[in-house]
């Protein structure tokens, strides 16, 4: 079968197409014929050997797929690799049925990134109506869904994005104000000005100076959840600062929820229902990448040329 394989860590050039043996399900696993493989920032971390857990080479990246089981059921699945392939095997507990009314493209957009946005906003930060909520990378996969989910909860959404086109998209999705994130100069002041005051709750996935600017814009008793470090540099904060401000900062990595399939099923059920009702509308990148275009997809993602969900077409 066809798969994208990493034999050494490095830039997008290490993503190589290969013919490999079809995987055989072990006990507790099922085989999926992959239609779409989601591409996420975590995949770029895997490629660079910057993932939170060690990766053994050779390795096929891809932690989410949309496809079909041998009995024909349409499913999405979450895994720890193996998705960039025409077939993959996944733990049965992290395979979820997709309603007929939800398209393949929407389903894969709602799986890893939708579940991340849902958990970050509703369960981790527990945002409330009227709160000022900061959403970074608001035109990305997690960002476009987060803007909509936060607005649906009645929050005042302040969206950060790097281009006028991306900021316009965030406004169209329900943001109340937008901030240019292409420069970190006076970023915290610009965020507070756009928000009309300090931020009550914030998502953070960039790291470095953006982490510090987000912290500086956070209100007393404010909450921030960190779910990545796209800039390659994790932010730090003294405990003394947290004591003085009564702020809370937490971290999140989606695979920690894989052991709770009933919770994941509930999240995806809520997201699929919201999609069916038109309450959320996944945004898809305009370029149709195939498995052999994985290098280009990674390059475009790293260069911030993408908007919304990025996926690889793995089927015929």
UniProtKB/TrEMBL annotation:
Q: Where are the transmembrane segments?
A: none
The record's listing under InterPro entries reads: ADH-like_C (IPR013149), ER (IPR020843), GroES-like_sf (IPR011032), NAD(P)-bd_dom_sf (IPR036291)
The protein's matches in Pfam families, at most eight in alphabetical order, are given as: ADH_zinc_N
Keywords, A to Z? NADP, Oxidoreductase
Domain Enoyl reductase (ER): residue ranges: 10-312
Q: Which residues form a coiled coil?
A: none
Keyword presence, Oxidoreductase = yes
Query: Record keywords: Repeat included?
Result: no
Cite the Gene3D superfamilies for this sequence: Medium-chain alcohol dehydrogenases, catalytic domain, NAD(P)-binding Rossmann-like Domain
Q: Which SUPFAM superfamilies match?
A: GroES-like, NAD(P)-binding Rossmann-fold domains
Q: What is this protein called?
A: Zinc-binding dehydrogenase
What's the source species for this entry?
A: Streptomyces chrestomyceticus
């Amino acid at each position: 079968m066809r798969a994208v394989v990493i034999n050494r860590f490095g830039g997008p050039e290490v993503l190589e197409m290969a013919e490999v043996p079809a995987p055989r399900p072990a006990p507790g696993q099922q085989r999926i014929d992959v239609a779409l493989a989601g591409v996420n920032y975590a995949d770029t971390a895997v490629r660079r050997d910057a993932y939170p857990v060690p990766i053994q080479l050779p390795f096929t990246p891809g932690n989410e797929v949309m496809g079909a089981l041998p009995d024909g059921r349409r499913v999405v699945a979450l895994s720890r690799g193996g998705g960039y392939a025409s077939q993959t095997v996944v733990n049965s507990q992290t395979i979820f049925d997709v309603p007929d009314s939800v398209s393949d493209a929407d389903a894969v957009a709602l799986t890893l990134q939708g579940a991340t946005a849902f958990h970050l906003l509703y369960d981790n930060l527990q945002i409330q109506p009227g709160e000022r909520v900061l959403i970074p990378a608001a035109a990305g996969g997690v960002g476009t869904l987060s803007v909509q989910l936060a607005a649906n909860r009645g929050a005042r959404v302040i969206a950060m994005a790097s281009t006028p086109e991306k900021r316009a998209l965030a406004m169209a999705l329900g943001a109340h104000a937008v901030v240019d994130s292409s420069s970190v100069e006076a970023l915290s002041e610009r965020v507070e000005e756009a928000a009309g005051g300090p931020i009550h709750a914030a998502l953070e996935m960039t790291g470095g100076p953006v982490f510090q600017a987000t912290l500086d814009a956070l209100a007393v008793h404010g909450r921030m959840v960190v779910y990545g470090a796209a800039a390659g540099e994790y932010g730090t904060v003294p405990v003394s600062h947290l004591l003085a401000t009564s702020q809370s900062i937490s971290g999140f990595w989606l695979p920690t929820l894989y052991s709770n399939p009933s919770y994941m099923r509930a999240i995806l059920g809520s997201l699929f229902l919201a999609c069916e009702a038109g309450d959320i509308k996944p945004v898809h990148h305009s370029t149709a990448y195939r498995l052999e275009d994985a290098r280009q997809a990674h390059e475009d993602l790293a260069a911030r040329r993408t908007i919304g969900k990025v996926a690889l077409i793995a089927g015929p």
